[in-house]
Structure formats: C-alpha cells, structure tokens
Amino acid sequence: MSATIFSKIIAGEIPCHRVFENAHVLAFLDIAPLARGHTLVVPKEPAPTLAQLSDEAAAEIGRALPRICRAVVAATGAAAYNVLQNNGAIAHQAIFHVHFHIIPKYDDGTGLELGWPARSLETAAATALAAKIRAAV
C-alpha cells in the first residue's frame, strides 16, 4: 500500500490534533470538519478498506471507537453524532487507509447531512442473497 496522509500522520511526519492514541489506533481532529469536534479514528495498520483490515486491527478499532465517541460527545455537548466509514472510491472514500469519522450533530443542524433513498426488498431475492452472503462468511 502506498503512503497516505494518514500513514504520514501516524509516522509523525504531518502534525495533527491528537485526541487518542494507543499501540493500534490513532484519533485526531479532522482538518476540514463538518462540525465542531469532527474526529477521525484510524488504525495504525495500513489497509485501504475495512474488508482488507486484519481481524486484530478491526478488534482494536472496535474497542476504541465507542470510547472516543463518548469523549467527543462529552467534550462538545453534541446532541447526537454520526459514525461514517466509506470503502472504495464509488462509496465516497477519498483516502485509501481505513478511517472512521465521528461527526457531532448539533441542535442548530450542523453536522452530517445525507439522503437515504430506500428501496423495497423482495422476499425471493432477499432469501437468495442472504444465502450467498452466509456462504461467503
């Protein structure tokens, strides 16, 4: 995997406003925040997508993420928050190193805005698809 801005931040080559760090995870404020307190949570293991991240690194992210969410809410007083994680360019991933966004949502409407164009789920197609996913797991 080629160097990304996140691997350079992890290596200390680019400064950041760190809010949490352990041997496996680094969290820091986003330099282009959608809202006050917008925080990025990054595994130190380089992997472009979540599916390519080791189980061990994923477990470390899973342990750290709730703790950092609680801290962001406590420090900002946000009414709520979104956790966003994109995989692949067509899914809006811009930096190809796994990362999670914790984006506070405030009563004034600041924070993440999104649409949710829900579709219907046909039973026969869902049954077949669920079977294929189960087999792949």
Per CATH, the architecture is: 2-Layer Sandwich
Could you spell the SSE succession in H and E letters? HEEEHEEH
The Rg value, from CA coordinates, equals 17 Å
- For the biggest β-sheet, the strand order reads 1-2-3-5-4
Q: What's the number of helices?
A: 3
Major pleated sheet = 5 strands, antiparallel
Percent of residues in β-strands: 15-25%
CATH class bucket: Alpha Beta
The helix fraction, in percent, is 25-40%
Whole-number total of structural domains:
1
- What average pLDDT do the residues reach? 96
Q: Which structural class matches the secondary elements? A: alpha+beta
Instruction: Using the alpha-carbon principal axes, give the shape.
Output: globular
CATH superfamily name? HIT-like
CATH topology: HIT family, subunit A
Give the termini separation. 25 Å
Low-confidence stretches: none
Task: Characterise this structure.
The protein is of the alpha+beta class. The chain has one domain: HIT family, subunit A (2-Layer Sandwich), CATH 3.30.428. The protein contains 3 helices and 5 strands. Strand 1 and strand 2 (25-29) form a beta hairpin.
Topology, please?
Elements: H1 5-10, E1 18-21, E2 25-29, E3 39-43, H2 55-76, E4 80-84, E5 100-105, H3 123-136
Brief descriptors of the model:
137 residues, alpha+beta, HIT family, subunit A, five-stranded antiparallel β-sheet, 5 strands
